[in-house]
Amino acid sequence: MQSSGNIILITGGGSGIGAALAHEFHAAGNQVIIAGRRQAALDAVAAAHPGMVAMTLDMADPAGIQTFADRLIADFPGLNAVLLNAGIMVAEEKIDLAIAEATIATNFLGPIRLAHALLPHLEAQAAATILTVSSGLAFVPLAATPTYCATKAAIHSWSLSMRAQLEDSSVELIEIVPPGVQTDLMPGHADNDQMMPLTDFISETMALLRQQPTPAEIHVERVKFLSEATKRGEFDPVFAALNRH
């Protein structure tokens, strides 16, 4: 991925990892469009970055995604990168169908629908990038958030397959694999000293994204405890440690 000169859409750009990456891409000389459900949060991020654009998008709304994509391409015909970052993480007691369905719609179907709407445009660019965001929990799940972990495992698998399908096209696919990060994704995360500080995660992630060629998967050192557990033959003890009460 080229580090500057892109026109990049970042979903979930109003807070957390999305807002922090939007800041970094903007500072590196990219045109950044941030999208999300909360217009006030988006506007606050954009106001701190002259030239950044904020657009409302609900990743759980199929019709809205297509309308959004059509408007985005019309307004930014040079769009050549999309970071599919928006997501929700909610604890579930056994099976909570409302939480499960909302999580799947936002975290998995949403990125697929948006990628589908934008892919013909991206394939027409000389060079384009789709960035997905999975999680270390895609590799070792947290029992308290079963559907969240399942959606992230699905995003990881989908990324592997789509990368192979796009191999002979102008579109590269990069998967970012975060550990637990100090954001407001779930109550208490921002102040949890077991989570990786957001500034550290962003700094290490951007350094990896600037590498040429860019790695197909972005694993900061902190996430490898989870993402490489199976490779080390340690899945069972890592799962037990993660889910110890």
Q: Report the CATH architecture.
A: 3-Layer(aba) Sandwich
Question: Approximately how much beta-strand content do the residues carry?
Answer: 5-15%
Largest sheet: 7 strands, parallel
Principal-axis shape? globular
CATH H-level homologous superfamily name = NAD(P)-binding Rossmann-like Domain
Q: Please state the structural category.
A: alpha/beta
Architecture overview:
The protein has 245 residues and is of the alpha/beta class. The protein has one domain: 3-Layer(aba) Sandwich (Rossmann fold), CATH 3.40.50.720. The protein contains eight helices and seven strands; from the N terminus they run βαβαβαβαβαβαβαα. The chain has a seven-stranded parallel beta sheet with strand order 3-2-1-4-5-6-7, sandwiched between helices. α4 runs parallel beside α5 (146-165). The radius of gyration is 17 Å and the shape is globular.
Q: What keywords describe this structure?
A:
single chain, 245 residues, alpha/beta, Rossmann fold, seven-stranded parallel sheet, 43% helix
Explain briefly what this protein structure is:
With 245 residues, this protein is an alpha/beta fold. 43% of the residues lie in helices and 14% in strands.
Question: Could you give the topology of this structure?
Answer:
Blueprint: E1 7-11, H1 16-27, E2 31-36, H2 39-47, E3 53-56, H3 62-75, E4 81-84, H4 97-123, E5 128-133, H5 146-165, E6 171-177, H6 198-209, E7 217-219, H7 224-227, H8 235-242
Parallel strand pairs: 1-2, 1-4, 2-3, 4-5, 5-6, 6-7
Helix pairs in contact: 1-6, 3-4, 4-5
